[in-house]
C-alpha cells in the first residue's frame, strides 16, 4: 500500500482480510516520514518504508516493491503521482481509492478535504467512493468499483468526509479481495483492471457488500 497520512484505509483493509485471503499486505510505502500509517504498519509487523517527499524517485519505489515481490499496489490517501515507470511496470495492477464519484471531483489538487468542499459547493446530492486503476493521469484510469453516499442537508466537508470514509473502508477491501482472488487463480490482473469499460460489480445484500469480477 502507498499512503501519505493516517492510514485508516490501510487499517480497514488489514482488518477485513480473512485468514485464508488470497493476498496479504506485505509492505507500506509513504512519501512522508511522519505519516501515521507507518506506525500502524510497524505495530502490525508489516514492513514500512519511505521514499523522498516528492514521491518522484521511481527507482526507490520500484526497488521496494520488487524486494517485497509486490503483485498489486494499492493507493489509499497517497498524495503523490505514482512515477510513470512504476505505473508501466505494474500496468493494471495499481489501484487507487478516491473519496468521490469519479470522473467528477477528481484530478490534480482534488484530494482530502478539497474534494468534499468541491462536492458541497457544486450542489450535487450524491457523492461516494471510487476504486480505479491508476494510469499516468491523476484519478483517470478505468473505474472498477463505486459506491454512492448521500449528501445531507447541513453537511460540512468534515461530516461528508466521515460518511464517505465509512464506505471507503468497505469498498476497498471488497475490490482488493476480488482483484487478488482473480490474480491468484489466473496469475494476471482481471481484464477489468487492464481494459477500460469493464467493471467489477459491487452489490449490497444482507451479507454486506459483494464484489464480482466479470
Ligand atoms: C481517504 O479519504 C482517501 O480516499 C483519500 O484520502 C483519505 C485517506 O484516508 N484519498 P486514510 O489515510 O486512509 O485514513
Written description of the protein model:
It is a single chain. With 214 residues, this protein is α/β, with parallel strands linked by helices. It is built from six helices and eight strands; from the N terminus they run αβαβαβαβαββαββ. It has a four-stranded mixed β-sheet, with helices on one face. Strands 1-2 form a two-stranded parallel sheet. The chain is globular. The model has no long low-confidence stretch (mean pLDDT 89). The structure holds 5-O-phosphono-beta-D-ribofuranosylamine (GRF).
Short summary of the structure?
The chain is of the alpha/beta class.
Question: What labels would you give this structure?
Answer:
214 residues, alpha/beta, four-stranded mixed β-sheet, 21% strand, binds 5-O-phosphono-beta-D-ribofuranosylamine
Amino acid at each position: 500500500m502507498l499512503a501519505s497520512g493516517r492510514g485508516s484505509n490501510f487499517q480497514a483493509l488489514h482488518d477485513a482480510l480473512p485468514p485464508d485471503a488470497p493476498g496479504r499486505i506485505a509492505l507500506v510505502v509513504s512519501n512522508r516520514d511522519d505519516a501515521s500509517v507507518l506506525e500502524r504498519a510497524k505495530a502490525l509487523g508489516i514492513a514500512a518504508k519511505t521514499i523522498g517527499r516528492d514521491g518522484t524517485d521511481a527507482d526507490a519505489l520500484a526497488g521496494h516493491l520488487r524486494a517485497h515481490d509486490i503483485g498489486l499496489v494499492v493507493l489509499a490517501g497517497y498524495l503523490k503521482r505514482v512515477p510513470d515507470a512504476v505505473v508501466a511496470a505494474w500496468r493494471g495492477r495499481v489501484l487507487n481509492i478516491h473519496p468521490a464519484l469519479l470522473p467528477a471531483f477528481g484530478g490534480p489538487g482534488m484530494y482530502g478535504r478539497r474534494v468534499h468542499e468541491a462536492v458541497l459547493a457544486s450542489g450535487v446530492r450524491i457523492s461516494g467512493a471510487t476504486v480505479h486503476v491508476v494510469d499516468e493521469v491523476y484519478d483517470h484510469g478505468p473505474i472498477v468499483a463505486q459506491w454512492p453516499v448521500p449528501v445531507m442537508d447541513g453537511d460540512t466537508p468534515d461530516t461528508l468526509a466521515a460518511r464517505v470514509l465509512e464506505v471507503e473502508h468497505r469498498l476497498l477491501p471488497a475490490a482488493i479481495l476480488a482483484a487478488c482472488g482473480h490474480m491468484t487463480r489466473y496469475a494476471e490482473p482481471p481484464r477489468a483492471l487492464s481494459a477500460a469499460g469493464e467493471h467489477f460489480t459491487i452489490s449490497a445484500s444482507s451479507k454486506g457488500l459483494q464484489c464480482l469480477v466479470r
